[in-house]
Design a protein that fits this description.
Elements (H helix, E strand, L loop, with lengths): L2 H13 L7 H4 L3 H13 L3 E7 L2 E11 L1 H9 L1 H4 L8 H5 L1
Antiparallel strand pairs: 1-2
């Protein structure tokens, strides 16, 4: 699994307004998902979501990309050309 692609997918989904997704939709393990979200939050790419039992529990309506997160999407525009969304995520991540 490509961590950079997973992080990109999470940012892109939030940017597109999809804030109700889990590891199941991304077809990754709970650990991979949690690690990616923790990284994005710790590095200040995202904000406005809720933790419960040390897990990212919910991307609320208030979840958003920070300026740094928006810049990440712009700087990695080459991934945008191949990212098709959650429907084809499994093939894209691996």
């Amino acid at each position: 699994m490509d961590k950079k692609k997973l992080r990109y997918a999470i940012l892109k989904e939030i940017y597109n307004g999809n804030k109700m997704f889990t590891e199941k939709e991304l077809k990754v393990t709970e650990e991979e998902f949690d690690e990616a979200v923790h990284y994005l939050h710790k590095e200040k790419y995202i904000s406005g979501f809720i933790y419960a039992d040390d897990r990212p529990w919910e991307f609320s309506a208030n979840a958003y990309l920070t300026e740094k997160g928006e810049n990440y999407l712009a700087e990695n525009s080459s991934m945008a050309k191949t990212y098709k969304g959650l429907k084809e995520i499994r093939e894209w991540l691996f």
